[in-house]
């Protein structure tokens, strides 16, 4: 079984602010930092640092060669990471406030240059029973889902951000959703409690496993007749930027290794707790040795 993450690769520009800028307002930042990021890259790093092996497919500009190097350093197979001529890498403008919360403005860049032909070329190297991890930060997402389904791949989707392109995709083809409360409400139409949103999402997508992340309230899981509540670990939060991606990568790595859902959820919660205690996106993602020692 092979694991493929067909996902975004971004350069993150992080600005420390006292509060998020509002309409018509101009504020000064206290500091500026440049990090590697993108949901795709972050989740690949987390998967690899959890001890798993996966392939990453995606596009970068010449300004993003260091993103590819970072993946290589973390043990990710980058055979399918290509450089676009004349197109900058995707990037994000991130405001990080005094409470370590963030708001993010994305520019797709090379991530939006993914074509159907490139998808076909990549998926030709994978077959029935392999896993495909997707987020909604690349172009041709709907085609990628349809093509992967036709090849018999097991598809895991982190449906972020929710937009028209995502809603046009065949979401009934998804085998596992990893999503937050807002995304669950958007896909299920339920605005109730976390448990109600979990149940509603499960009813909307009855063949899929559902992982619902709840931030400082932990996470929930539903599959078949099984439902699990996982508390978050209490730490001092510095930067929440890559917490969800760390959780997703760790959860999938543990599941791919054969671990039960409860073990995968607990390990992912520990990894996410370590990540929020550090600044940056990809630099905050811990290695499995740190996670296993956490809380001892």
Uncertain segments: none
Report the order of strands and helices.
Answer: EEEHEHEEEHEHEHEHHEEEHHH
* CATH fold descriptor: UDP-N-acetylmuramoyl-L-alanine:D-glutamate ligase
- Tell me the number of structural domains: 1
Could you give the distance between the termini? 33 Å
User: Can you identify the CATH superfamily?
Assistant: Ribokinase
Q: What order do the strands of the largest sheet run in, or round the barrel if closed?
A: 5-4-1-8-9-10-11-12-13
Judged by helices, strands and strand pairing, the structural class is alpha/beta
Strand content: 25-35%
What is Rg?
18 Å
| Biggest sheet details | 9 strands, mixed
Mean pLDDT: 95
Any idea what the shape is?
globular
What does this protein structure show overall?
- Helices cover 33% and strands 25% of the residues.
- It is an alpha/beta fold and 296 residues long.
- Strand 9, helix 5 (164-167) and strand 10 (176-180) form a beta-alpha-beta unit.
- Helix 1 packs across helix 8 (243-256) and helix 8 (243-256) runs antiparallel to helix 9.
- The longest helix has 16 residues, at 261-276.
- The chain is globular and about 50 Å long.
- The two termini are 33 Å apart.
